[in-house]
Amino acid sequence: MCDKILVTGAKGQLGIELSEILPDAIFLGKEVFDVSDKNVIEYIRDEKITTIVNCAAYTAVDKAEDEPGLAAKVNFECASNLAKSGAKIIHISTDYVFDGTNYRPYKTDDKPIPLSVYGQTKLAGEKSVLGNADIAVIIRTSWLYSFHGNNFVKTMLKLGQEKKVYQCCL
Questions:
Q1: Of 32, 72, 31, 28, nearest to 54 (Cα)?
Q2: What does the domain layout of the chain look like in residue ranges?
Q3: What DSSP element (H or E) covers 26?
Q4: DSSP letter at 63?
Q5: What is the dihedral of CA 40, 41, 47, 53, to 10 degrees?
Q6: Diameter of the chain measured on Cα atoms
Q7: Active-site residue, selected from the candidate residues 43, 103, 118, 145
Q8: Averaged in consecutive runs of 10 residues, what is the pLDDT profile of the chain (170 residues)?
């Protein structure tokens, strides 16, 4: 039996990139299905989804401080519902679950100490995934960048174009 794969966050950077390498997967964006709705569990079971790649995320780090409910809905409730479906899950998380003060790269068993609403909601999502899914993988990343969407690389390129940058040659 082949895996039937569901990718959430279909319109985000990672979702779009995955659509190019997983052409047979089902891609759901928030405009199609609100995965914070518990009906997503029934949908996953009815469609016989075996594996979920959860790319759905509230990623506006600073804005999350002003919208903690929305950040929790997307980063925690969605992850929790997906984890309760019975499918294997690959959950994309963030290094914001840490406080950023470590002098070396973080290890998987380092104690998370999120300092922001964004980090707190992502950590809550991680815990729910690990506590509810039979088979789960958490991937923590610090930056995503691609041709699609907004990202750090595009921001730096834009700032470089807006400001006069002088080059000096010796």
A1: 28
A2: 5-162
A3: strand 26-28
A4: G
A5: 80
A6: 67
A7: 118
A8: 86 87 87 74 90 91 91 93 94 91 88 93 96 94 74 73 60
The model carries a pTM of 0.84
Residue whose pair of structure tokens reads 């995934």 in the numeric block = 129
Instruction: Tell me the one-letter amino acid at 141.
Output: T
The CATH superfamily holding the domain 5-162 is NAD(P)-binding Rossmann-like Domain (3.40.50.720)
Contact 73, 120 (CB under 8 A): no
Model pLDDT, residue 124: 96
Reduced 3-state DSSP string for the chain: CCCCEEEECCCCHHHHHHHHHCCCCEEECCCCCCCCCCHHHHHHHHCCCCEEEECCCCCCCCHHHCCHHHHHHHHHHHHHHHHCCCCEEEEEEEHHHCCCCCCCCCCCCCCCCCCCHHHHHHHHHHHHHHHHCCCEEEEEECCCCCCCCCCHHHHHHHHHHHCCCCCCCC
Q: Is 103 part of the annotated catalytic residue set?
A: no
DSSP letter for each residue of 46-62: HTT--EEEE------TT
